[in-house]
Specification:
The complex is a heterodimer of chains A (219) and B (431). With 219 residues, chain A is mainly α. Chain A is 76% helix and 0% strand. The chains are: A mainly alpha (219), B alpha/beta (431).
């Protein structure tokens, strides 16, 4: 297989397979949750469950002052790498072209040099997160092999993307192919690991807020 | 696999609903919940991280309700839940969690961890891994009618005592009264002034109320130990009495978990909505204040602060009422930092106070409350839960802090205008 053939394979059949597994897997994951259902609450409501759910959906993105002071590192590094991932994935012009091909529409991107800088910040934030996971007694207790695997799978596309963009070492098609392959690995892992929180967190926040909102508390 | 473990496993399995599956699917192991838990912040021991306490429940969810977990189990790749796990987790689930729910307010993905720990206790208790203190309290609650073994004659003695002290009649078994009041064992035994105070306030405000000789105990060990069957029996007892007396509402006393039990869990435990309302005493007092029915003769001059009982405030929704009432009755009411829905627990809720084994840990965790109190340095501390009150006093004594504890209801009663004097004042013959 030549470098170009490799690129064509990862862009074509491999990408389609990864996309299918990610979407079908997430659908199964979400159905597994929803089908468990909830018993109706027979206690008289004081507030609105729906209003509480909606409130917590957005409000939980903003830590309260005291939590921020207690968990500054986790929150700052966490915010940085999440925003960094969003910017590099969705606002890099070559990526937007991929989305345009998939969805039929695109949007404006940011200059490549800016994306390059964001990628570097994201990589640094991810390294901080990893060091914290390796050194904090709480995180060492909580962490499983899956946590480290997910970290690596999140880190690799950034690394390969940065290398491909800056043309270090191998041929262009090979570097791009490796970058796409690393993204596909991330997509494959999505429904089977904590990566699925990107979707299930919406449900978790909704339920939390609804349980509290029903009792008249904004959570 | 032993029969009791099998029972516990099944109980855990039955607890898992869509919210729990969503929560467990979303945890990213960030560790922020540890910083929200007084058992972690005051010990620094990672095993007290809230999400770690639900590990037995997570394992059952994973191997029973997730595709990946089921596959791993079929291939023999996962470590299934064992009785040894439950044994190891007993102290984490009962001794180092007051179900205060502060972690549930902090989790960035929105996990209601306290909701899950409450559910985990159902499995622990079914498998026979509950603390002896809570088992004893639950047994007494079912057989005697009170976790502290308080029987009707003890209540009747306190009623006579309070009637003499306050010069008021305390109504018993009055059919058609508007409110039926419940009491906690601790109030009957340690703080009977609560009973005298509500009698005084209700007479002052012209409220019709009664106690029931059939159901006067408000506390519910069933929800603390995590046995819904017991909890339902205790709730049913109150429902039967309230329906027999045809009251419009039942008033939960100054007790946190009693309010949770009757107000929020109650109808779900017995499987039907109540035909009467359930109110916390602070909700009733605030309604009376709003209606202008509470006339005070003077205000408390000491600097007061308020401790929100977790099940009344954060988990119960009664957050504004105590502040309105304190503003009425106190000249210098100051909230502690993080008061209200982010308040720090006294460390003794959720059955921890009934579990002697947890005493040392509870007093260590109290350092969080101590720090919160020191930020305000009040002359007196007001609360609305007799369990909080006793164990706040215990903690303050341990750390040599001299801050008197007050009940909010009693504080209001003490400052009420004397109705009799008012009547004399308006008597034309005396003018």
């Amino acid at each position: 297989m030549t470098d170009v053939e490799f690129l064509l394979w990862v862009r074509g059949p491999a990408f389609n397979a990864a996309l299918f597994i990610m979407l079908a897997g997430m659908l199964v994951r979400i159905m597994e949750i929803l089908l468990l259902g909830r018993k109706p609450n027979l206690a008289a409501a004081r507030g609105s469950a729906a209003a509480g759910g909606l409130h917590t959906l957005w409000r939980r993105s903003i830590p309260d002052k005291d939590s921020f002071q207690r968990s500054t590192l986790v929150i700052v590094a966490g915010y940085l790498f999440h925003i960094g991932l969003f910017v590099t994935i969705f606002l890099f012009v070559p990526h937007i072209l991929v989305f345009e091909r998939l969805l039929g529409f695109g949007w404006a991107g940011l200059p490549s040099t800016l994306i390059d800088a964001v990628a570097v910040i994201t990589v640094l934030a991810l390294l901080v997160v990893l060091i914290h996971r390796l050194t904090s007694p709480v995180l060492r207790l909580l962490s499983t092999t899956s946590d480290y695997l997910v970290w690596a799978l999140t880190f690799l596309p950034l690394l390969t993307g940065w290398i491909a963009f800056n043309r270090v070492g191998l041929s262009g098609p090979m570097l791009t192919g490796l970058h796409i392959l690393s993204v596909e690995l991330l997509m494959l892992a999505f429904p089977f690991t904590k990566l699925s929180h990107a979707f299930t967190l919406l449900m978790a926040r909704w339920y939390n807020g609804a349980i509290a909102g029903y009792k008249g508390v904004k959570s | 696999m032993s029969a009791s473990f099998e029972r516990g496993y099944q109980a855990l399995k039955e607890q898992i609903d869509a919210p729990i599956a969503a929560f467990l699917s979303s945890c990213v192991h960030c560790g922020m919940c540890a910083e929200a838990c007084l058992f972690y912040t005051e010990t620094g021991d990672p095993k007290f991280t809230p999400i770690h306490k639900v590990e037995p429940l997570r394992k059952v969810w994973h191997q029973e309700y997730s595709f990946w977990g089921k596959l791993a189990r079929a291939l023999g790749l996962s470590k299934p839940l064992t009785d040894a796990d439950l044994c190891e987790w007993e102290t984490l689930v009962y001794d180092s969690c007051t179900l205060c729910g502060r972690c549930s307010m902090v989790c960035p993905v929105g996990n209601d961890i306290a909701y899950m720990i409450r559910k985990t206790r159902e499995g622990m208790a079914a498998a026979g891994h509950a603390p002896a203190g809570l088992i004893g309290a639950s047994r007494r609650a079912v057989t005697i009618g009170s976790p502290m073994g308080v029987k009707l004659p003890a209540l009747q003695a306190q009623i006579r005592h309070m009637e003499q002290e306050y010069g008021l009649k305390i109504p018993l078994d009055v059919e058609g009264a508007e409110y039926m009041c419940l009491l906690s064992s601790m109030e009957i035994m340690n703080f009977p002034e609560y009973l005298g105070s509500i009698a005084k306030i209700f007479q002052h405000a012209g409220v019709s109320w009664t106690l029931s000789t059939q159901a006067f105990e408000a506390t519910n060990s069933g929800i603390q130990i995590g046995v819904s069957d017991i909890a339902a029996i205790l709730v049913q007892c109150i429902v039967d009495a309230a329906e027999k007396l045809k009251v419009k509402a039942v008033i939960s006393p100054e007790c946190g978990h009693a309010y949770m039990a009757i107000r929020w869990e109650g109808p779900n435990l017995i499987g039907r909505p109540f035909g009467f309302r359930v109110l916390h005493i602070l909700e009733v007092l605030e309604q009376l204040r709003e209606q202008g029915k509470l006339n005070i003769k003077d205000r408390e001059v000491r600097k007061l602060t308020y401790h929100d009982p977790c099940q009344v405030g954060r988990r119960g929704g009664v957050l504004e009422q105590p502040r309105q009432l304190l503003d009425m009755v106190a000249e210098n009411f100051v909230d502690m930092p993080e008061a209200g829905k982010m308040n720090w627990c006294c460390g003794a809720g959720g059955g921890v106070s009934t579990n002697e084994r947890a005493d040392e840990l509870r007093l260590t965790a109290f350092k969080r409350k101590k720090a919160q109190l020191e930020a305000v340095a009040p002359d007196a501390l007001v609360s609305a839960c007799s369990n909080c009150r006793i164990y706040l006093e215990d903690g303050l004594e341990e750390y040599h802090m001299d801050i008197p504890l007050l009940s909010l209801t009693e504080t209001i009663a003490n400052h009420l205008a004397d109705e009799k004097l008012e009547v004399i004042h308006h008597d034309p013959h005396l003018q």
